[in-house]
Amino acid sequence: MPDTLIVPSIGSGLAVPGRRPVAVSIAGASKSFKLPHNRASTLKERVLQPRSAHTFEWLHAVNNVSVDVEQGEFFGIVGRNGSGKSTLLKCLAGIYRLDAGTITLRGSLSPFIELGVGFNMEMTARDNVIINAIMLGLSRREAIARFDQIIDFAELHDFLDLKLKNYSSGMLVRLAFSVSIQVNADVLLIDEVLAVGDANFQQKCFDELERLKRQGRTVLFVTHDMGSVERFCNRAMLMSHGNVVEIGDPATIARHYYKLNFATSTAGDDASADAVAISTLESDATIVSVWFEDGDGVRVEQQEHGRTGCIAMEVEFNATVEDPIFTATLRNGADTTVFSASSQPDNLETGKFRTGDRPIVRLRYDNWLAAGRYVVDATIARRGTGANILDYRRDATSVVVHGARPTAGVVDLPSTFEIAPR
């Protein structure tokens, strides 16, 4: 009998020696939907097509998914549209009931998975905040006490007495996310609806995710943004056609996600074929190696501050590709991006490459970086928006910068002080 069990306390979970207690346990979870071949909307259609109204096929949205998420883990769930990510989160939230399998959640839950869920569109934001906070586990007194914090974060002071049916999708995102992070739940479910918000609010949300991660909250995070997966997640799961393709470290999952999304051909259209495609697919271009050079073109593992630096990558083409986009991103020891350059912004014509070509691409720069170790991520993409990734190498190589003055910043730019008498 399929079931979802919510255990009141995180501490009640069984802990494996050397590991944290399991906060979310999913075992053999499956959920399917009937898709009617013809949907009769009038009595006349039912009379004229009596048989077709009863024919349907099954959509296996989630198929035998099993995974354990530890307490305090930031766990990413990724996949193409229709892979079953959001359906799985709705099963976790209790919106859908499983057809088979079990889900065990230890502790309180705060879902942020779909615009408008839990809101009454005919009521004002003022009333919805209190009701929604209570539904998520706060007492009425706690909800009232945190009301100002919720509205401050959402920046909706001027719209408190406006009915939600008149809110934009971005305003709904602000309100829903602001409520969900104020309930101090043990487990948070966050879907990709964050993408609806504007850039400023998205940054506030990312700052909040950093805070939740530092606090050791358990977060299940669905997104198409692989940068966010690598930035926040401890592990990630790749889904396809309702099945689990792979569970592993975020960098590996991100790379395999790109392969599934932008492969020009696959072995089939099911998850098992996708798993084969990940291991066997030959991309149209492959980053063979990446290294640093000094101003004279000599390979180095250390660079002197203030001199010309160079990031070089050797690329092998396995098909004809015209004007590919090359990108290099430099990150410091705190995993902060300090420098990123691409051939895309200037619409640079990088050339036409054919099968077997192995060009070396060089990015030269003035090295004003502060002292420390830096790692580089290298990417090659098709001409266009840069989203059609051909190959991606995270932490492809590293370099140590020395000779800079002591500074608290990530760069040590040439600068002078000027003091003028009054």
Helix content: 10-25%
User: Describe the biggest sheet?
Assistant: 6 strands, mixed
- How far the N terminus sits from the C terminus, by CA atoms, comes to 83 Å
Q: Can you tell me the CATH class of the largest domain?
A: Alpha Beta
Regarding quaternary structure, how should these chains be classified?
Answer: single chain
Instruction: Give the strand order of the largest sheet, numbering strands 1, 2, ... along the chain.
Output: 6-7-8-4-9-10
**SSE-based structural type:** alpha/beta
Second-tier CATH architecture of the largest domain: 3-Layer(aba) Sandwich
List the uncertain runs. Answer: 8-16, 264-268
Number of helices: 10
Fourth-level CATH superfamily of the largest domain: P-loop containing nucleotide triphosphate hydrolases
* Estimated radius of gyration: 26 Å
Share in β-strands:
25-35%
Please provide a written account of the structure.
The protein is α/β, with parallel strands linked by helices and 422 residues long. The protein folds into 2 domains: 3-108 and 186-276, Rossmann fold; 285-402, abc- transporter (atp binding component) like domain (Coagulation Factor XIII, Chain A, domain 1, Distorted Sandwich). Helices cover 23% and strands 34% of the residues. It has 10 helices and 21 strands. It has helices at 43-48, 85-93, 125-135, 140-145, 147-154, 169-180, 199-214, 226-232, 250-262, 271-280; strands spanning 3-7, 22-36, 56-70, 74-79, 100-106, 109-112, 187-190, 218-222, 235-240, 243-248, 285-293, 299-300, 302-304, 308-317, 321-322, 325-331, 337-342, 352-353, 360-366, 372-381, 389-402. Residues 8-16 and 264-268 have low confidence and may be disordered.
